[in-house]
Amino acid sequence: MYMYFEATALLYILTVFTLGIFLFGVYASIYLWRKGKAPSLHHRLLTGPIIKALILDALLQAQLLRQSVVRWIMHMCLFWGFLGLLAHTTFLAVMSHFIPADSALSRYVFLGPGKPFLDVWGDLWGLILLIGLIIAFVRRYVVKAEQLDSILMDNTALIFLFAIALTGFLSEAQRLAASPYDPSMRYSFIGTMFASCLRANPALIADYIPVVWVHTLISLVFLSIIPFSKTWHAFVSPVEIALDASERTPLGERYGGATH
Amino acid sequence: MEEQHTKPEETAPSETHAEEAGTPTINIDNLSMRQLMELDACTRCGECSLWCPAYEQDKKEGITPRGRAKAFKDIIKAQHGLWAKLFGRPGVSKEKIDQFVAELYECSTCRQCYEVCPVKIDTVELWESIRRAVVNAGCGPLDSQKNLIQSVKSYDNPWGQPRSSRSRWAKSAKRQKKIAEEPKDITKQKADILYFVGCTGSYDVNVEPVAINTTNILQAAGVDFGILGIKEKCCGSVLLRMGDREYDRIAQENIRQFHELGFKTMITSCAGCYKTIKEDYPKVGKLNFDVKHTLEYIIELIESGKLKLTKPVNLKVTYHDPCHLGRHSGVYEAPRKLLKMIPGLELIEMERHSENARCCGAGGGLKSGYPDIQNKISQTRIREAEATGATELVSACPFCYQGLQVGIQALDSKLTMRDITELVLMAIEDKAEPAAAARTA
Questions:
Q1: What's the ipTM?
Q2: Which residues of B touch A67 (CB under 8 A)?
Q3: Rounded to two decimals, what is the model's pTM?
Q4: Sign of the Cα pseudo-torsion (B373, B378, B379, B384, in order)
Q5: Cβ neighbours, 10 Å, residue B157
Q6: Does residue A140 sit at the B interface (CB-CB below 8 Å)?
Q7: Is the bond leading into A100 cis (omega within 30 degrees of zero)?
């Protein structure tokens, strides 16, 4: 089982359904790409430049840092926050479904020293995502940065991510608020903060399971539509960054010669 | 706009499909898998729109690289996507394609968008491939651009001039004693160096001093070089940028001719020819010679002691990076190095230079398709040049020369436009006064 949420048959069905839609979307994209018949590469693939570009421009997003520190912080928060939470959920799912509950590893992760680590991990990456979302929201709708053009796909991505982050923290806060205080709760540092707000207004405290379901459903819908949405760039852009680096490197050497 | 959908003569029937209600299908065979993937890679961050010279003058989302990528993706998904295959084509209106094509050509292909794109989408290659797709489908180019293309096909130059007058500049210069000797005809006498003059330098009387000055510099250095004379043909850049597949034929014919002549190095004073021959020709056929911009070759002449720049040229200049030399070919340092070799010359950089240099707006068919936008782009660049306090605006491309003159005239600017060869010639002792290009657009 998950740490605080029992996986049901419905969850399995929804997950399979989500994966099905996701894979169909990936196939639809590749189907269209394959209509292109011209050669994609004019040089052989170069591993070194590809690795360098993936580290600098995909993982660290150095190009963005050169353009704007604020945008770099925003995008790094969105990118790493989302990946961190996805890794968190995936890890929990794998542990819950494939590792026996009475195994030493499960006991370590769910009952032992691993638990505070997971609590901090979930809240930390959730907070990072939330910071990125707040900056994105302010840039797009408050400051209205000149370069932004907000259409449905831009708004949808932001709304989904906001909903995921907020319902995630809300479900955690509901769970913590409904439980007697335990010192280990401090590891869920954001959830604890929200929980204290709820405790101040007991009428707002409710069963956390329905909120988890809302969070889960929103997350699954978001994941399923990734290949059809703006978020697809998170998967495709690194490929383009890598290919460009590989293709440009031979030209760069020639440029050097051309400019003495 | 209706006429844009007239099927061009060169379009093979298999490449154009009549679709419902007369809407053409845009065949995307000529694009690569990577290019189609690039449409999905766009993060819609809009950095490109902050730098796009056309968008700076005409605030339409559709002309931003982000807008174009989305519009094209919408069209091809509707025509070729999996949904269209499974559930039938939702249909794309002719108006939508018309609008897309009009916006596709409102672009000087300056490549600034590639420079600033955080995910490094190879934008100009993408636009050129899409242009070819829309031309193949009979939807492009714009009516106002068709004359240029037809002229290249009919006369081997975009200016509607007869082939026989391509080398008239040399004869005229010799007659007027602007050059000591006419350059030899490399098709008759072998030489290691071919000076590829280019269409603008050959035919535009306002810009032909670029060819005259280049000839004088090469002769002063004792270089054994030749020109193709009336056998020189357009490099095909115009066709490539506008999406016409006749470019392939021209490139192949030129490569064949070049190889038959057996020279070792080609030099050209035109940034457009340089980029096309050096960067684009190898995708059509392998080259067995080096391609250098004149200024790169002049630096070699100076460094080898064959050319001496000793006469002070006491001018304050600012340098305009031609897009095809800079962003397209990566040559930023060489022109600056050459300018610094000229004694007395003071180089003052514009606010935007090198990788981020503003475009003059003349390339990519923008000047013929949208002359008013080009004029505004040029004016913006001229104001930027004026802000440096320089008295001379220098560049290394006849096409930029034309494009920037538009802005100088529109603003009645005091700036003097010069090609870099003119300044080099000024610095050579005992040479006749360099030929100054006419200061008109």
A1: 0.90
A2: 47, 116, 118
A3: 0.90
A4: positive
A5: 23
A6: no
A7: no
